[in-house]
Amino acid sequence: MFDSLTDKLGSVLSKLTRRGALTPADVAAAMREVRLALLEADVALAVVKDFIAKVSEKAVGEAVVKSVTPGQMVVKIVHDELVEMLGGDPSDSGAALGFESAGIDLAAPAPVAVLMVGLQGSGKTTTSAKIAHRLQIKEKKRVLMVSLDTYRPAAQEQLAILGKQVGVVTLPIIAGQQPVEIARRGLTEARTGVFDVVLFDTAGRLTIDDAMMSEVLAIRDLVKPHETLLVTDAMTGQDAVITAQSFNEKVGITGIVLTRVDGDARGGAALSMRAVTGRPIKLLGVGEKVDALEAFHPARVAGRILGMGDVVSLVEKAVTNIDHEKAEKLAARMQEGKFDLNDMLAQLQQIQRMGDMKGILGLIPGLGQAIKQIKSADLDPKSFKRLEAIIQSMTPKERRVSDLIKASRKQRIAVGSGTTVADVNKLLKQHQHMETMMKRMKKMGGLGALAGMMGGAGAGAGLGGMIGNLPRPSGPPSGRR
Question: Which end of the chain has fewer CB within 10 Å, C or N?
Fold first, then answer.
């Protein structure tokens, strides 16, 4: 998400930061480029005009002119205005680090009713299951899911199946019941069953119509939801903003869940949504997996857009996904200067558990070059699986002593892993590089010296090299070249 916008804004703002002093003409020229970049990202025109006016006014002010680094001051102004556009408070020191509150508000007597609304095809049912799973796992809440979609074939069955997959209770289906009747039964079940939260998944339509809105209003009046969440597809751009406006005016939403943001390179819907509707984006759907749902933090997103990274989210991913016992063992071996192919395999598996490599790199400040290497390499998750397959096709002794792997062994490993000898050579070369780095690190004083070593060649050099050596699909594997 925001890939194109990040590249363009990064280029514009880097020109400003290289200048020793800024004139009003410099700022005006930069703002023209920023305006164009935002419009190309499908941000609403009214939002773009307001944003440019605010940044321009502050960027030519006395504080910037007298600043030691005027270019950096302009970058900060752009960042703060982005945070405000996205619904955050740039003056809050916690928000500046990405700690502003996000997610679903459950501050109400149990069972807390959450009403899910949106058009058909926006991912509403799947998102309901993701939210229920998130509340149950992270918030330790007992959740009941209720499907009110009696129109789409097998919609109720779909929610029941998803409920089983994520371990969340769903209201039993009674054929012939209408949505309002089902909602009433769901409320009763939530109260008698002592549930903390009850999620109502309403029916969608291909377009907004009076019948749909009347039904949603009747359900809303019955269940009196504490949260009414609009689920909308980020890929639809400005159509998503128009949908949000309509639902907010007619139903009254409390927040927005943007789905398929991992497939939206422009990000205009996210940037426009809060400014146009006045309602916050609460969650982002970032993939198909049941845990591919993130809280929306304006300051963190602004940092990603400007290429500043998002260390807080990176740490959260690591805490959630990394096997800490294995990580500690690997760190201890690295401290001793040891790094065999078993260690490399463990490292690869830990990285994969954190998610998509493009997304992970986007969270690390200063790794713009590495991210560009990934894009040019057209990296996909299968590349990591190929690396795993190569190492797993080796004998235990070969993994411990990589020098044993000569020509005939390479051919056997290539055939066993479904790759090529060239792929095996690339992996061995990368392992050798990493092993050498571990030994140097030990001589230079252990893990504390790693940052300096990496910094010497650019923060992304080692990682970028590893990415460049990932094997690519090259037709049917033969094991020979």
Answer: C
